[in-house]
Every structure is written in C-alpha cells, then in structure tokens.
Here is the input.
Amino acid sequence: MKSYFVYILTSKRNGTLYIGIANDLIKRVWQHKNNLIAGFTKEHKAHLLVYFEETTDVLSAIAREKQLKNWHRQWKINLINQHNPEWKDLYPGLL
Here is the structure.
C-alpha cells in the first residue's frame, strides 16, 4: 500500500516554516536538504524536518496539506511543539 506524507520543514526553532506533501519522504527531504529543489526551502534554508504525518489516502494528504497551509502560524508552532517539543530534525530517524 502506498504512503503519502504531509511534512513541515523549518530553518531553525520557531523559524521559517514550509509545508509540503510527498510520497517518498526520505527522498523529498534529502532533496530539500541538498538544495536540489529551487524555491522557498532553498531560499530560506528550511532543511530541518520537524513534523510529518502519514496516510495511505492521497486525497486526505492533499486536504491536510491545504488545511495546514491555511492555519495561523501559531497553530503550526503549537502542532510542532505538541509532537516534537525540542524541534529535533526527524530526518535521521527515518534512515
């Protein structure tokens, strides 16, 4: 069964936040970390994976990404704090 991920990257604790979606989280975050994707994450150095959710339903993942993107910044920070209070980079744990 295929998995889809909604994820949040940041530049530092309480820094710039980026929300994305991927079907291969390890590959996608690696691309961000190595500046292979032009745009927001490269410009703002948002390379730390601080939050992610997994689902097997692509439509749910898309809806959740849109929902999170429309949230107030503080709500996003609260979500990260609830699941990752130290704002550790979760990427090494995926490998």
Notes: The longest strand covers residues 48-55. The chain has five helices and three strands.
